[in-house]
Amino acid sequence: MTHFPAVPPSDAAEALRGEVRAFLADTLGAMPAAQRAHSWNGHDPAFSAALGARGWIGMTWPRAYGGHDRSALERYVVIEELLAAGAPVAAHWIADRQSGPLILKYGTEAQKRSLLPAMAAGTSFACIGMSEPGSGSDLAAVSTRAEKMPGGWRINGTKLWTTFAHRAHWMILFCRTSGSSADRQAGTSQLIVDMTTPGITVRPVLDLMGDHHFNEVVFDDVTVGEDALVGTQGQGWAQVMSELAYERSGPERFLSTMTLLSGLVAALGADAPAAAHAPIGRMTAHLAVLRHMSRGVAQLLQDGADPALEAAIVKDLGAMFEQEVPEIARALVAHVPSAKMTQDFLETLHFTVQMAPSVSLRGGTREILRGIIARGLGIR
Q: Is 317 within 8 Å of 310 (Cβ atoms)?
């Protein structure tokens, strides 16, 4: 049974919200909406370092590892405000959202002390090596192999769709360490790989808009030490499933088209025609429900639960919402007054329409997610 607990109001969280909004107003200034729409893929190391200096990366991590011992709800507030403002978060995003928490949960003391402080400072960036050619979201089909050797591991294989691998310092690699690909979930592990290690080739994969954030990463006899293993050998599948709860449940699963939605509402204005009321009202209601569910997952994570099912539901519903936003914008654009039909608004619409198909792919395809949900609900 799913559970999305209500999160009680917090004066501290709302005070933090005001701080973040003031910081973003000062830092982002008059950044055009068309640029803010790229928030997820906005790679700005200086901005990430500024966030780290404010203590807004690694917020829930212990101070001993560079964190700030704050609550999951306080972190949620920061993420929500960053995304709503269209801040360029790509540089630190993966480290803060999932790689850091993974290391905190399963890593050795040495791994935590060597990696987490720089991640929390916004100066060390991570990527995740999960998907592979020919397997897509079917992670159990992993064929990249790490063979045990004296003193460490030898890695061979290929990862695909690896976001910002060309700018990352580290990869958390999901690979097979025993058995065969026929074993599916058994015999998999996770390794920390320095992206400057000899034998790694990173090749760009341009998206349909010509942007470079995806990559193919080839491992050709790449060797890493014994201390690269994260957690327990052979338990990679369980660890990855735990990691994906962080990836799938956050406000990024329904706020990455927020720049267009807020721009549309502003362009329609207070005197919006009656034809716009119902679709805008419906989107607002959907947004409120998704926010409640996503905040509930943050509370479950705060309580130490493993909300993999709830996270999959948020991700699936969020993808549907985000793909509906540009379609509604296209339907209502004829009602936007000519004075509000700016080039910036049109460029934001153009980008979001092209980006929207990807939201039901990243973080797990719709088919994979619904299989997880069906099994979690006991109907498959």
A: no
Torsional sign, CA 271, 272, 278, 279: negative
Phi-psi region of 221 (alpha: psi -120 to 50; beta: other; left: phi over 0): left
Q: Using DSSP, state whether 193 is helix, strand or coil.
A: strand
Query: What is the per-residue pLDDT across 89-115, written as a single tens digit (0 to 9) for each?
Result: 999 999 999 999 999 999 999 999 999
Please state, in angstroms and rounded to a whole number, the distance separating the CA atoms of residues 124 and 192: 13
- How many of the other CB atoms lie within 10 Å of CB of 378? 7
pTM over 0.85, yes/no: yes
What is the chain's alpha carbon radius of gyration, rounded to the nearest angstrom? 21
Pairwise pLDDT comparison (230 vs 252), residue with the higher score? 230
Beta-sheet strands, E only, within the chain: 126-129, 145-149, 152-159, 170-176, 188-194, 200-206, 212-225, 229-230
Distance CA 3, CA 310 (A): 7
Q: Report the DSSP beta bridge partners of residue 205.
A: 214
pLDDT exceeds 60 at position 181: no
Sole residue written with tokens 């979201």? 137
The encoded tokens of residue 333 equal: 């654009």
More confident residue, 218 or 367: 218
**Other residues' Cβ atoms within 10 Å of the Cβ of residue 379:** 7
Cβ-Cβ contacts under 8 Å for 139 (sequence gap 6 or more): 130, 131, 174, 237, 240
Assigned token pair, 17? 């919200």
Q: What is the pLDDT of residues 15-72, one digit of tens each?
A: 999 999 999 999 998 899 999 999 988 999 999 999 999 999 999 999 999 999 998 8
Nearest to 37 by CA among 84, 92, 96, 95: 84
Please report the sign of the dihedral spanned by the C-alpha atoms of residue 141, residue 145, residue 147, residue 152: negative
Tokens in use for 191? 């390794």
C-alpha to C-alpha distance for 13 and 182, rounded to whole angstroms: 48
